[in-house]
Amino acid sequence: MVKTRKVPPYTDLMKPTMQALRDLGDSGSIQEIAETVIENLHLHDDIVAIPHNEGKSNQTEVEYRLAWARTYLKKAGYIDNSQKGIWFVLSDYKNIDLNSIDGKEISRAVRSKQPTKKQSQSSKSEDVSPEDKDTEIWRDELHRILIEEIKPDAFERLTMRMLREAGFIELEVTGRSGDGGIDGKGIMRIGGMLSFHVLFQCKKYKGSVSPSAIRDFRGALDGRADKGLFVTTGTFTRDARKEATRDGATPIDLIDGDELANKLKELSLGIKTEIITIETVNIDEEWFQKL
Fold it and tell me: Is 95 buried (19+), middle (13-18) or exposed (0-12) by CB count in 10 A?
């Protein structure tokens, strides 16, 4: 089967996005949608791994253009998203003939309803960033701080603090050389009754984590934990995600840069959220410097 070797424009990703949501039962997370679109379009791994803004963001070009596709579909009234980031097809379009979706026409229709520069001199171009301009800005700033400003040991402490806030107990940083990349261990309690022994690895990384890194980490887990947790500022390749959930192997949960940002924001760790009429997110760089 021949795989596509170029990144499709966002206009060509609207119909695949709708198809992906239909395949997922009319709703799905950003990651689920992306993985389904990539699978359906048979996008080549080299294309999927292309960064959108290397060094400043952990988003890939495919993810960036898919975000635009969702933005226009939402503005056109086809889909919407919940506060928890789950996207869903609106009832009027659940049974639509997907062949009727014309991305270029949707883009033109949405743009025609936007104020012109003369009508709104203070408004920025709609092309500044997809879905949420403020979200894009604070995520890029957080990514810069985590990659460039804090040291690896501080990132380990940040990971431990996050895990404690999330409910882990008996956390300990190990970080021994030759230990398969294991940085620490802890116990996750669920409902005050069940507990899981977890070994974790945290990696400051600009690019994508490969499946070989997941295999190496799993090799160090055997017989020592119920599951593993891999935290990175970067992303995971599709093959790495598949390797993490491979049947018959010790399961490994993955937290990439976007999910890390979401969790730090949720737990208010170095991130302050002010809600007036809109949500404003501020990065407390000094907090990270003191880790």
Answer: exposed
Q: What is the CA radius of gyration of the chain?
A: 21
The two tokens of residue 42 are 């048979």
Summarised one tens digit per residue, pLDDT across range 44-62 is 888 888 888 776 667 789 9
Residues listed for the chain:
291
For residues 156 and 173, give the distance between their C-alpha atoms in angstroms, rounded to a whole number: 8
Quote the CA–CA distance of 234 and 262 in Å, as a whole number. Answer: 14
Say which residue the tokens 């949608």 belong to.
33
What is the C-alpha separation between 258 and 140, in angstroms, rounded? 10
Cβ-based neighbour number of residue 268 at 10 Å? 11
Q: Is the pTM of this model over 0.70?
A: no
Beta pairing partners, 199? 185, 228
Mean pLDDT on 64-81? 94
Kindly report the CA angle at 277 between 275 and 282, in degrees rounded to 5? 35
Nearest in space to 142 (alpha carbons), one of 260, 283, 274: 283
Q: What residue type is assigned to position 176 of the chain?
A: R
Token pair for 84: 């928890």
**Sequence-separated (6 or more) residues with CB below 8 Å from residue 118:** none
